[in-house]
Design brief:
This protein is of the alpha+beta class. Among the domains are: 95 residues; 106 residues; 96 residues, Immunoglobulin-like (Sandwich). It is 20% helix and 41% strand. The strands form three sheets. The protein has a 16-stranded mixed sheet that branches. A hairpin with a 7-residue loop joins strand 13 and strand 14. Helix 2 packs antiparallel against helix 3. It starts with a helix and ends in an 8-residue tail after the last strand.
Length: 561
């Protein structure tokens, strides 16, 4: 019997210990170590070390983002334990007491002043009652029949005595009224001061820092089991929204030579609710929000066409082209500091610590530098690559629309750069000259990047009135127009120039348009565009003249010329 009781006691003890072990919840102090930033969203990795009791327990990671994707949570670890399960939950903490010590002290002061103010109001009311009594006494005295001449004095002595009495009485009343009026003014002044003090205290109280609202705590729970008490580290990773990056470029053209420097940057932002402090970044051009399911073509049926008369109402649709604008909020301030000590080494750049990796579906850049990005939605520029590219600079000029030439860098061998559509800052040397857009979504061996305006080329476009005329030829009118374009290269370098102009087009078969003279220009019959390709030597001038005619019936008039 004793053996049975001892066995039951041991079994009960083991059961209670097992139950206690299973109910253990332990909060782990963790930190973010790595972040992979996608085009939309980011994957965050948290790491922490802890001791793990024998049996089953739950390790709690607190401070995770409220925008966590629950299906993306994954856990791993190092140590003599087994990970059983990973879950997400949020709990509401105990309500925070809103009245702080400072607020209570202010309330106490306001209450004390309010009591004094209430007490003062009784005395002020008493003074005003006394003033009313004095005024009543004065009115009764002045309205006495004797003072109004309606009573007959028995003698002159009586009249004189009455007048002396009235005089003394009125003086006494005036003195009392003055004294009590001064007391009233002083009390009103004190009352106003107390009201002002209450107002200032309440204003000060409203500006005190308020406790944060009672927000839920977002947690990741990792269930583990161990055969004995041990220690180890646990990592969790999860995807969050409210983060991402967009491509941004710096393009620098050297003062001499055809090479341009292209720096590839990621404009990273995050508003996930958790700061990324001293983390290693990985920039990925993947978008995990897009579907990864292979598309399947549906069946395609055809049949005979049948004419069906259907009464329909005419409808008009309006389509608005969406403008593409550059984000002015991404304005970057740059300052240059001169270093007196010429022996100092050149500062390193972030792209020196970037390593490109390619997997089966995306391109990733590992940045071997610590970054600090707060959860504030602001843009942080992370440099990921630098390329020196061979480019040919071509100048384009359309004097009919703009007097400035535009420089275009024609880049070859760009396909392996893995560029995306994005904005770019343009520099000539160290001078910022403007912005452009890089669009690699073209099927061409050459990537053309607009480098901005070129103002060292002077141009005038003139319609020669002496060679522009209208005349009648038989049953038709003939309109002849001649334009002259003068070019001058004011720079010390050769310029590869493409000049563009045009002649009008028509869809009317009775109107005949002909390019009579082009000075070597080639014309596109479908667009009416005339193009001249040339090379201008330094400080040289060139004149181009082109003439076209428009022939139409003489009884008609032409618009648009």
């Amino acid at each position: 019997m004793k053996h049975i009781a001892l066995l039951l006691s041991l079994t009960s003890t083991l059961f209670l210990q097992t139950q206690a072990s299973e109910d253990v919840e332990k909060t782990l102090k963790s930190k973010i170590t790595n972040v992979t930033v996608f085009m939309q969203g980011a994957q965050v990795t948290r790491t922490g070390s802890t001791s793990i009791p024998k049996g089953t327990s739950t390790i709690i990671f607190e401070g995770v983002s409220p925008y966590i994707n629950q299906q993306s949570i994954k856990a791993s670890g190092k140590g003599k334990f087994t990970i059983l399960d990973v879950q997400y939950r949020y709990v509401y903490p105990e309500p925070v007491e809103q009245n702080t010590k400072a607020q209570s002290e202010i309330d106490r002061k306001i209450s004390k002043i309010q009591d004094s103010l209430n007490h003062q109001s009784y005395f002020l009311a008493n003074i005003r009652e006394k003033k009313t009594a004095i005024q009543t006494e004065r009115n009764l005295l002045l309205n006495h029949p004797l003072m109004r001449g309606k009573a007959k004095p028995d003698s002159l002595d009586l009249l004189m005595g009455t007048m002396n009495f009235v005089e003394k009485k009125l003086v006494s009343i005036a003195d009392r009224f003055l004294k009590i009026s001064l007391e009233e003014a002083e009390m009103v002044k004190e009352q106003n001061a107390m009201n002002q003090r209450i107002y200032e205290l309440r204003l000060f109280k409203s500006n005190l820092p308020q406790p944060p609202p009672n927000q839920p705590k977002h947690q990741v729970l990792v269930a583990v089991t161990a055969n004995a008490h041990t220690s180890g580290s646990i990592d969790i990773s999860y995807k969050v929204n409210q983060a991402g990056w967009s491509p941004w470029y710096d393009i620098t053209a050297k003062d001499a030579g055809d090479d341009i420097e292209l720096i590839y940057k990621a404009a990273v932002y995050q508003n996930t609710g958790e700061d990324w402090s001293n983390v290693r970044l990985r920039i990925s051009n993947a978008n995990p929000n897009r579907s990864n399911i292979k598309p399947v073509l549906p069946r395609w049926y055809i049949d005979y066409f049948r004419h069906v008369r259907v009464a329909t109402k005419k409808a008009t649709r309006y389509f608005k082209e969406k403008d593409v604008a550059m984000d002015d909020d991404m304005e970057m301030a740059r300052t240059t500091e001169e270093v007196a000590d010429k022996a100092l080494p050149t500062a390193g750049m972030a792209y020196d610590y970037s390593q490109k990796m390619q997997n089966f579906s995306s391109i990733e850049f590992d940045i071997d530098l610590p970054y600090y990005i707060k959860s504030d939605g602001k843009t942080h520029f992370v440099t990921v690559q630098k390329h020196n590219l061979k480019a040919e600079f071509q100048h384009y000029l359309v004097p009919k629309l703009d007097k400035d030439a535009f420089v275009v860098a024609r880049i070859v061998d760009w396909e392996n750069l893995d560029l995306l559509v994005g904005n770019a800052n343009i520099y000539f040397g160290n001078t910022f000259v403007g912005r452009t857009v890089i669009d690699p979504s073209i099927v061409s061996d050459t990537l053309e990047v607009s480098m901005g305006r070129y103002r060292s080329l002077a141009v005038t476009r003139t319609k020669l009135k002496s060679n522009t005329k209208k005349q009648i030829v038989g049953s038709h009118k003939l309109y002849t127009a001649t334009y002259q374009i003068e070019l001058r290269n004011n720079s010390g370098n050769d310029i590869n120039l493409t000049l563009e102009d045009q002649i009008p087009l028509t869809n009317n078969a009775e109107i005949e348009i002909e390019l009579v003279k082009s000075d070597g220009g080639s014309m596109n019959e479908h667009t009416g565009l005339i193009t001249w390709d040339m090379k201008l030597a330094p400080y040289k001038k060139k004149v181009i003249t082109f003439t076209y005619t428009v022939k139409y019936p003489k009884e008609e008039e032409i618009t648009g010329l």
